[in-house]
Amino acid sequence: xxxxxxxxxxxxxxxxxxxxxxxxxxxxxxxxxxxxxxxxxxxxxxxxxxxxxxxxxxxxxxxxxxxxxxxxxxxxxxxxxxxxxxxxxxxxxxxxxxxxxxxxxxxxxxxxxxxxxxxxxxxxxxxxxxxxxxxxxxxxxxxxxxxxxxxxxxxxxxxxxxxxxxxxxxxx
Length: 172
Ligand SMILES: [Zn+2]
Fold this sequence. Notes:
It is built from 2 helices and 9 strands; from the N terminus they run βββαββββββα.
């Protein structure tokens, strides 16, 4: 059975980012003991990830590269926002030690109350610059893995837009 619409796919993968000197750095592994199970079209990964899998079948392997625009998008300077240093003085009027280390993840609340995570990008005298790009934005990604299983989705799974049973959502 080939991977296409209305199929449930179980696969393993290793995700690497490609560094500036073409070296591979591993960022994520879904191995045989914790494979990824998803309804085709609903993986939560970039659309092009799924496009590269279309037509593969059980026991096939894959190995492909997504350029940034096909992955999590280009890195955008517009997604870097400046905040006053005073905002981070949350411990007796002081900025907690280590809070503003470059690369630290900090939770923020949007105007609509939703949570988003930003990363400390740059620390100036009175200003902290926070990066809200996806952590993998601007990166070339390499995916490698094996297709373990392909099956027809049930009508319930199609209606819900996710997988039921092993590796999927468990309903009461
Ligand atoms: Zn469901």
